[in-house]
Amino acid sequence: MPINVLFAAHEKRWAQYEAPLRTALDEIGVEYSLGTDMPPSEVDYIVYAPSSPVQDFTPYTRLKAVLNLWAGVEDAVGNPTLNVPYARMVDDEGLTQGMVEWVIGHTLRHHLGMDAHIVNPDHAWVPDAPPVAADRPVGILGLGELGSACGLALARLGFPVSGWARTSKKIDGITCHTGTEGLHDLLRQSQILILLLPSTPATENTLNAETLALLPKGAFIINPGRGPLIDDDALLAALDRGHVAHATLDVFRVEPLPQDHPFWAHPRVTVTPHIASETRAPSASRAIAENIRRGESGEPFLYLVDRDAGY
Ligand code: NDP
User: Fold this and answer.
1) What is the Å distance from ligand 1's center to 196 Cα?
2) Confidence band, pLDDT 50/70/90 cuts, at residue 212
3) What value of ipTM does the predicted structure carry?
């Protein structure tokens, strides 16, 4: 009997994903039917994104797994009707590589002080060479798929890299911290701070008035993680008094960022519209198909969400 795969994401994604998903499913050699509309009681797998029309999983009585198209899972992780294995997206070739490039780009922008030369209306000749990477400690909050890949890439460029995670780890080239003390130690030394934590109750306002004050004066913040990781008012206050030199923010509590939000007009804030990285259809489709292959052959699913931890 063919397996039924429901693509339950925004319809514009269907146009992007239908062909790559068919190619990837063909490659794993299962008989399948793939579509955006099928009787719930006949669905085996749901490919899911936050804009999904499926919010109540109860009618999906033979569902084997929900496979998230994105890395972030905060929209569905607390859904009490989702009672089957729930996997998030890990897409090394697309999502991870894209995030590494975005983080490196924005880190180098601040490290090299590029803004002063790109926008220089007074034609000021200030020959202050930037420090080398070895003299610019970088901190990364979150050492998962994305945080560790970014950390390793920054370490390869010569930056001293520290990272913070929930559980302790050993990663060559990254000094790893855990716990509140570990967070505080990392913040005290990070001239550039990158946030790649998931949005969970435990990570909300990780950067607040108290923790922002621990950063060295003139630190830079880069947040491609999630908006709720930062207390917006505390960040604005730290920017206003120059304690934080600049914040590059890709993610916000409300998206699109409302036009009247002070971040838009703040001279020390760069807003990017949640584009740090994206799941890329061909590689993400292969990741989805691999989990379906595993489900069908009785192997454990990859990248299962820890429902208790919330990520
Ligand atoms: P992972 O789940 O692989 O990594 C999450 C990391 O955060 C882990 O190191 C984890 O610790 C750590 N962490 C979680 N909770 C805590 C806590 N309470 N205290 C300390 N550390 C904690 O996620 P990814 O790396 O794949 O993605 C990270 C986030 O990036 C996503 O959740 C999403 O929000 C965001 N993202 C943004 C995109 C964009 O375009 N802006 C694109 C894709 C993702 P441990 O290792 O111990 O579990």
Assistant:
1) 5
2) very high
3) 0.99
Residue 62 known to be catalytic:
no
Residue 10's pLDDT is 87
| Residue 44 near residue 64, CB atoms below 8 Å | yes
* Residue from 99, 73, 74, 108 nearest 87 by CA: 73
Query: How confident is the model over 226-238, as pLDDT tens digits?
Result: 999 999 999 999 9
**pLDDT tens per residue, range 214-224:** 999 999 999 99
SS3 293: helix
> How many angstroms separate the CA atoms of 25 and 247, rounded?
42
196 lines ligand 1 (CB under 6 A): yes
- The 3-state DSSP composition of the chain as helix, strand, coil percent (nearest 5) reads 35, 15, 50
Cα separation, 212 vs 72, in Å, equals: 24
| Mode of pairing for the β-strands spanning 45-48 and 32-35 | unpaired
